Amino acid sequence: MLPPPITHPIFCMSQIMSDIKSGIQYMFQTRNSMTFAVSGTGHTAMECAICNAVEPGESVLTAVNGIWGERAADMADRIGGRVNTMVAAPGVFFTNAEIEQALSKHRPVLFFLTHGESSTGVLHPLEGIGQLCLKYNCLFLVDSVASIGGAPLHMDRQGSGLDPATYPQPHWEGQMHVLSCLVFFCHTKIYFVVVFSGIDILYTGSQKVLNAPPGTAPISFSERACQKIFSRRTKPVSFCLDLSWLANYWGCDGKPSRVYHHTGPVTAFYSLRESLAVLAEEGLENSWERHQKVAEYFHTALESMGLKLFVKEKNARLPTVTTIVAPHGYDWKDITSYLMKTHNLEISGGLGPSVGLVLRVGLMGCNSSKANVDMVLAALKDALKHCHKNKM
Ligand code: PMP
């Protein structure tokens, strides 16, 4: 899909919003017309997805291999969903067979998965999962806060089981969600309709690979997701995040006029538009490749320093966030505070289930460069030399 046409100097907010919409469609590789940015951070988009897609009493399944699945489960529980979790140790991912088993057992209306698990450094494979969700009549919700723009993701096709590299680019307008060949008969003629299943709801945040200030969160809903949401029996509990309101606010509902819903964070919209233009200028494929090369360069250097990477499976290492096994004999907090004090560099410890297990280094967007890797490596070497090592 080609980068979107981004128009030049603009003074009208609705034009800025429409540029943002096409920028997000490009970043997500989707043709969903229900695509916009929520006013808020990644958590707000997560809540927007869940509170619209789930009605009280409905079954929800979340994949927990780090903190984000836990958060999604908490949100679904608060709105009255019947929440089930499938849990894996931090640092690993789920197989499609495990996912299918859980889908068939819990029969959820929504399945949540994190593509880039920033608390553990796992990049979760997505192929074939959309197809499984379709088989069990469930919407596929993916958190791409830490991965989009830094690792390949095609919302309309990924998850479908089709190889995004070989499958031809769509050349017609409209939605492609369901991988299935529907055959139906009409007046003695047989019709074949091929539709493809990808991700049904996808969201991210503005402050990761996009390098924009926090405060806006791109999100997109498939036709199948909209069908479920717009045929709800109950209103979503949140007025602010109600998709009917947001769809109109962003001009996604086809209605001729937009009704005031809330005051948009206009400066954040300007910066989001600019950051999407920067991504389109570099090109998604180039951005994915740069992140991958820089991550591999970093990982090799860490291993040659004698450090261990937390994610064993090479292909499942998130290019934007590297998790290093907390070096043996050190208190990880000594290392992170030394780096902050002496090098003005923020490296964090674990988060949620990975606390105490890892050091996490985020290199994403414009920060994903070999020069930055060299700087981090030099600072880490210095920290390991100077921090107190327990002799036990
Ligand atoms: N999901 C993932 C994978 C994240 O990395 C983060 C932020 N670190 C979030 C969700 C939440 O985003 P925010 O802090 O913007 O609310």
TrEMBL record:
Cofactor(s) listed in the protein's UniProt record: pyridoxal 5'-phosphate
Enzyme class name: transferase
EC number(s) given by UniProt: 2.6.1.44, 2.6.1.51
Residues engaged in binding substrate: 360
CDD domains xref list: AGAT_like
Domain of life: Eukaryota
Record's GO cellular component terms: peroxisome
InterPro entries named in the record: Aminotrans_V_dom, Aminotrans_V_PyrdxlP_BS, PyrdxlP-dep_Trfase, PyrdxlP-dep_Trfase_major, PyrdxlP-dep_Trfase_small, SP_NH2Trfase/AEP_transaminase
Gene3D superfamilies the UniProt entry points to: Aspartate Aminotransferase, domain 1, Type I PLP-dependent aspartate aminotransferase-like (Major domain)
Residue list for modification N6-(pyridoxal phosphate)lysine: 208
A GO MF term: alanine-glyoxylate transaminase activity
Keywords for the protein's UniProt record, in alphabetical order: Aminotransferase, Pyridoxal phosphate, Transferase
GO biological process, one term: glycine biosynthetic process, by transamination of glyoxylate
Domain spans labelled Aminotransferase class V: 14-159, 197-374
Substrates-to-products reaction catalysed: L-serine + pyruvate = 3-hydroxypyruvate + L-alanine; glyoxylate + L-alanine = glycine + pyruvate
Similarity annotation: Belongs to the class-V pyridoxal-phosphate-dependent aminotransferase family.
Self-association state and partner proteins as the record states: Homodimer.
Protein name: Alanine--glyoxylate aminotransferase
Source organism: Gasterosteus aculeatus aculeatus (three-spined stickleback)
